[in-house]
Amino acid sequence: MVSFGLIEEWNPRPGRLTSWVATPAAVAEAACADVHPVPASHQQEEYLRAAWRNESAGFRFSRLCLISFDIQAPLDRAALTAALNEFLRRHDTFRSWFSVEPDGRVVRHVVEPETVEVAAVDHGAMTSAAQVREHVQAETPGPRNWDCFTFGAIEWDGGFTLYCAVDHLNTDGMSQAMTCVDLMTLYMNHAFGTQNPLAPVGSYVDYCRREREISRTLTRESPQVQRWVDLISANGGRLPQFPLPLGKDVETYTRSAHLTTTVFDEAAAQRFEEVCLANGANVTAGLMATAALAYAEFTGQSDYLGMTPKSTRRPGPELSSVGWFTSLIPVPVEVGTDTTFTTAAAIAGRSYGAGKELTDVSFHRVLELVRPEDGISVEPGWSVPMISYVDVRKLPGVEMFDAINGCLYGNRGSSEEVFMWINRFQETTSMTFLFPDTEIGHASVHRYTEKYIEIMTAVANQGDYEPVVAALT
Asked: Per the database record, which ranges form the Condensation domain (predicted)?
């Protein structure tokens, strides 16, 4: 099973560490790259602004995403150097960097493919996993830099651990899985002379162009914008919040904590899915229905507004492209006094279908279009509870993840809300949370986890769940 968690929980075997970083010549040439007319994606722009606003946080505020896996053969440095450079040049998200102009605009600069080059740096023996973790996080630049990516190999008897650390600016969950497949394929081709093909890739810059072209067609009167406004207005003009207290310090930063637990085995996961399908919902919609019932039990409120990430990749080469190809879509679910899971799932199924129609309508763009009279109050750097479902069984290359000790980790940044990932593996389904690291936050997330698993388990075992709610408002 693929390991998930915070980088602090990554435990690579100690050994001789060689890292691959952008060469000084590449960094210098990239700094002179011309301005490119395509802006950052909406999500990238807001992410960059948040990172720049919080540069004085005293820790890495931006998200660092790390993958690692083992190769049971001696390291071929020349082959890995060639593989890494081919990988970076293959995906054009790694050729962009962004500046803030005097007028406040975020501007893209694009580096020529031949400029991109990483080279090996020998760091000698690392005697502990903690040393490796500290090194990787210290060496990888943040999103203000073009070269916000590093790679490394930790050699041990009989093989080595290969890692890739990339700022979230240039990657997402699907991209991390594809990065693993690409790097394994490219290294094998260069080290052993194999000729395993790679799938064609699309352009992330072209994706950003498409997103911005769609945004330019939107006005406050557009039906998609009105849909978002109606949903937020029905939520009191505010974004949704986790249903239990988190004990956040509003004056300072609240660091992130992580929890992973098992939900149930594959047989139960299959039964849960069958109940969802029988009621017009897929698994994601079923999970939103579960969240709606939990929300009603914890708050006594009938209207639940859930958010779930949706891939914005188009069929074709984009499906093999590395980049940040996600948006949030809304899934409202109303829970009545006689609502059970099966009725909530039917509602969630319809809501999820309607939400998918907003996949290409960035909520960031909606906020640019709202008017004061809409009564929507959203602060810069906003965050919402998020529920993500990933059927890991369907990820590219998943059949080899167990054999190569595949791992996905993120740094311990700051958390204002609760992010939740439900991952379905071959044998088990797990839940992973990222949440504010406070005593109240830990207690609330554990309480929420118990309730969420209780509902899912009842659905899998009994075919339905009836919430215990005295009264709904």
From this structure: 69-344
Ramachandran class of 186: left when φ > 0, alpha when ψ lies in -120 to 50, beta otherwise: alpha
Structural domain count of the chain: 2
Residues 191, 252 within the same domain: no
Number of CB atoms found within 10 A of residue 74's CB: 11
Q: Does this model's pTM top 0.85?
A: yes
pLDDT, tens only, 156-208: 999 999 999 999 999 999 999 999 999 999 999 999 999 999 999 999 999 99
In a shared domain, residues 103 and 252: no
Same domain assignment for residues 338 and 190: no
pLDDT digits (tens, 9 = 90+) for 402-423: 889 999 999 988 899 999 999 9
Residues 244 and 285 in one domain: yes
> pLDDT for 99-145, tens place per residue?
988 888 999 999 999 999 999 999 999 999 999 999 999 999 999 99
Residue listed under structure tokens 């492209």: 321
For 465, other C-beta atoms within 10 Å of its C-beta total 23
Residues 188 and 125 in one domain: yes
State the CATH number of the domain containing residue 283. 3.30.559.30
Are the CB atoms for 1 and 402 separated by under 8 Å? yes
Q: In what order do the strands lie in the sheet with 96-100?
A: 35-36, 106-110, 96-100
Q: Are 7 and 166 in contact (CB under 8 A)?
A: no
Residues 155, 275 share a domain: no
The answer as to whether 225 is a domain residue is no
Q: Which residue segment(s) compose the domain that 456 sits in?
A: 237-391+413-462
Residue 180 in 3-state DSSP?
helix
8, part of any domain: yes
Q: How far apart are CA 179 and CA 171, in angstroms?
A: 9
CATH of the domain at 88: 3.30.559.10
Query: Are the C-beta atoms of 163 and 154 separated by less than 8 Å?
Result: yes
Whether residue 259 is found in the same domain as residue 333:
yes
Q: For the chain, give the percent of residues with pLDDT over 90.
A: 88
CA 149 – CA 203 distance, rounded (Å): 19
Phi, psi torsion values for 263, nearest 5 degrees: -90, -60
End-to-end Cα distance, the chain: 42
Structure tokens at 26: 């590449």
Q: For residues 137 and 19, is the Cβ–Cβ distance under 8 A? A: no
| Count helices and strands in the chain by DSSP H and E runs | 13, 16
Residues 333 and 426 in one domain: yes
- The answer to the question of residue 104 being in a domain is yes
Alpha carbon 61 to chain centroid, angstroms: 15
Q: Which amino acid is at 328?
A: L
